[in-house]
Amino acid sequence: MKIPDAPAQALDIQSLDQEGRGIARRDGKAIFVEGALPGERVMASIYRKKPNFEVGRVSSVLKAAASRTMPRCVHFGTCGGCALQHVDFATQVAVKQRVLEDALAHIGKVKAEELLSPIHGPAWEYRHRARFTVRYVAKKGGVLVGFHERRSSYVADMTSCTVVPRRISTLLVPLRELIGGLSIRQRLPQIELSIGEGADVLVLRVLEPLSAMDEAALRAFADRYRLFVYLQPGGPATAAPFHPASGADLHYALPEFDVRIYFSPTDFTQVNHEVNRVLVRRAMRLLGPQPGERVADLFCGLGNFSLPIARSGAHVVGIEGSESLVARARTNAERNGLASRAEFHAMNLFDPDEARLATLGSFDAMLIDPPRDGAVEVVKALGEDAPPRIVYVSCSPATLARDAGVLVHTKGYTLKAAGVVNMFPHTAHVESIALFRRA
Question: Which of 73, 79, 300, 395 does the annotation list as catalytic?
């Protein structure tokens, strides 16, 4: 039940939940308070009541926690892009580590023998991918370009953003002005940002053709700010270069493994290139691929882990659900001189064909990097010839914990190590990595 904000009430905050909200308790009921931190006493206004919990927001802080800090972004609190800018960086990482430990204990009923040191990198200007909503709002004086407001479908009235590179942040106002002058300003709902090494791409979702004047304005804008502009009239596969017509040579480097990963602007890639480099390094250390070994890389995508595995001298078998991603992974292997040690196959890993998996042979090690839904059908399908070591990279502590429970309690693995990866600073998003071994 959503209710009008009630009169503020004093609450003592005990902990944080997975969304970065403070948790208080009253008469056995949990109260989730946006903007509150553990150890604080706050005045909170409740705006939602359920039989087992309530949700509110801070109206004032009576006693501040030592971990509270001043948000850097002027839009924090309105924009839904960040949830934790009011928490110092070290505490953010510690909270995410606790979220992971709690999920493993309560959902998977497992505990890691070793807690790995958290992986983290730059706290600001780290996002190399972003999806901005575009909306023409006459009451706001024209076009808005930004993330959604917190708990809302409205677009935040953003003039800057501290988690994208500064050169992109400074484009938000010029983009508003540009799109406001286009004939299709009400038929352009989204701009996708994709940054590679030496190339910034904006993909404009266009629901109607551009006029000649629109095209001229876009070309001038791209030239002025040294951008590559793509137009996307349909699904992601329809995105095509507009100006410069040659398109961008998008790639990111993994220098430690002498690898470059090439991608198209609508492909999935990690948003934080610096943290991804550290993540790949740790994954390789935990996995330990050796020359002559056969290693499976499930949900391999473009080859982010596959190609470093191949560079180690092992033979990698990458499996991915998308035929187009498989084709690009093969191309990446060829461009990096690794085609002889890498093969890629398309397969639905959410409903794996166990017979077909068996035809791929046995493996000495396996890396699993699934989306948020996890890989429960894959781990259930592991048989007697399952690899002795598995590295699992996760973007959801809950599904990692669920799958860890299967591996440990039914497949004979031990959870040797686990730790968090702060891929998205200032958000409640928790990435993690875990190592499983069995005798």
Answer: 395
